[in-house]
Amino acid sequence: MRALQFLFKTSPAVLLLVLCLRLGSGAAQDLVQEVISAKLTIDPVENSTNSHDVTVTVKSHVAKCLVVRVTLKAFNNIIFPYGNFLYTACLCDFSTSNFFWEIQATENGIIKGKAEVVSEENICPSDEEIYTIVYKVCIKREIIIR
């Protein structure tokens, strides 16, 4: 039994390793912050039975400029009569921007919006500091036709 006791003793090196791993993972978790947030709204178009306006509102949560790409993906017989646009824009200093689509739906369906921070040049002013961390927000909404 005494021969196995050394296995249950914790050496100072192991304690130091556990402490470093614990501190390192805590510091990494503190670095994760919400860079952008997004909201997807769907509103019926007045005097139309199957047309809807879709808006994705993207808000920046950093004090620097960042390049945001916003896309929309639709399922179940949803049509983009004027095109399914991919938007790329510059958001600076806690700003908010809206992106718009018009859709037609003859039955219930699902829309997914995606806003992501991308590294793309010549979108933001050249004299601004650009925030280039990768960050993505996805939103899913159901369209209910009545």
Automatic annotation (TrEMBL):
> Which positions make up the signal peptide?
1-28
Q: Which GO terms describe its biological process?
A: proteolysis; regulation of immune system process
Keywords linked to the UniProt accession:
Disulfide bond, Secreted, Signal
InterPro entries listed in its UniProt record: Ig-like_fold, Ig_E-set, PIP
Compartments in which it is found:
Secreted
Family, as annotated: Belongs to the PIP family.
The record's subunit annotation is: Monomer. Interacts with AZGP1.
Q: Which PANTHER family match?
A: PROLACTIN-INDUCIBLE PROTEIN (PTHR15096:SF5), PROLACTIN-INDUCIBLE PROTEIN/SEMINAL VESICLE ANTIGEN (PTHR15096)
Can you name this protein? Answer: Prolactin-induced protein
